[in-house]
Design brief:
Elements: E1 6-7, H1 9-21, H2 31-45, H3 51-57, H4 69-78, H5 84-90, E2 94-95, H6 119-145, E3 157-162, E4 169-176, E5 185-188, E6 196-199, E7 205-210, E8 214-222, E9 225-234, E10 240-243, E11 250-252, E12 255-257, E13 260-262, H7 265-274, E14 281-287, E15 298-306, E16 318-324, E17 327-333, E18 343-346, E19 349-352, E20 369-376, E21 379-384, E22 387-393, E23 401-409, E24 412-419, E25 422-423
Antiparallel strand pairs: 1-2, 3-4, 4-7, 5-6, 5-8, 8-9, 10-11, 10-14, 12-13, 14-23, 15-20, 15-24, 16-17, 16-23, 17-18, 18-19, 20-21, 21-22, 24-25
Helix pairs in contact: 2-3, 4-5
Length: 424
Amino acid sequence: MISTQKISPLHICKTQIEEKLGWGPSSQWASQDFDMLSEKIFDSTKEQVSATTLKRVWGRVTYKSAPSTHTLNTLAVFLGYGNWREYVQEHSETIAEPEHSDLSKSNILPASPTLSKAFPISILAGIGLLTIAFIWMAASQRETDTITLTYDSSESQFNSNPVTKGVPNTVIFNYDVSNIKADSFSIQQSWDQRRRTLIHPENHTHTSVYYYPGYFRAKLLANDQIIQEHDVYVESDGWMALLYDFPVPIYLPVQEEKGIISVEKEKIEAFARNHPDAPIDLNYYLVQDFGELQSNDFRLSTRLRNTNTFPEGVCHKTRIVIMCSEGRIDVRFSKMGCVGTLNLVLGDTVISGKDYDLSAFGGAIDQWTDIEVMTEDERFSVDMNGKEIFSMGLEQYPGKIVGVRFGFEGGGELGRVRLGDGNL
């Protein structure tokens, strides 16, 4: 008997991408890692694949449709192939080494269509029994799949509290499922289904460590069905700065002097020496409760500049991210010659510099630049140095504002920052 194990080309592709990145297993990736992968793919291929799409490809978001041809082609190009067809031709299937059972020639059925009297009854009976068993199992599975259990959320309790302010931060989840009957219970710390942990129904506490500030939607599940969920804010405890690194970022002390928010240049240089192959991605965070400030009616005003002096960051890429409860608004700037690598993310809408003229977002970003990002009357717009450079209507917005993030390739500083009617 010969047994084989086939692995799909897409599975191989994802595994090779994980090996190329060297970020560890994808089951441990956070949402920011998919954002960074989206950027790396764009920088390498000049094709846009959103972080949301990547989460779907990696099975982190439930989505029944297969990846689009554009997505597959872009992943193949990212790995050095011309397109997905070329990739599939080389990785159409991986077959394990065949395992041959040790059969003697006397046990092999003759090639002649005439069967001996000893085999037909036993073989046919076995086939019949297997067929009946298979049909019964399939029918049972279909019957099981059609059963939908409904749980009353009032019969359970679910809440959480961070142990401190800032990051890293352990969040303590308190739960009570003693009044619910189910085969299994679990807690999922965010949208990421792979960050789900089984819990014991007789216990009442579960903990999880968060290394980045942000907004998370924690879920309590019974038999994989959500019975309760709530918002978890991991606040930044004021302004904080970090350099991206896996699996734990490098935290840097923030300096505030004469209205300027910055970090010591020597700290960034030390990181560059110790991580010669890592991108230098400096980020300032302010994550806190902004009340009911919504992404469809806000104004963010700031003054910033990119201070990069490293040869790897010649484009001086700079970004402003409005972190929201259901996504983000991500606006990016660079030197004029690099605008073709930029893109805008407005919730689920991605505008690529390859397909649109984003030259208005280019300029001397290494000089102090005044920027306003706003939405009003169902229109999103961006002003630079007092001049509107972008405007478009939007029907859907990514929910409530929960934080702001400023990213700088190589390094950067912040001057004035205002959100809504208040100073940050």
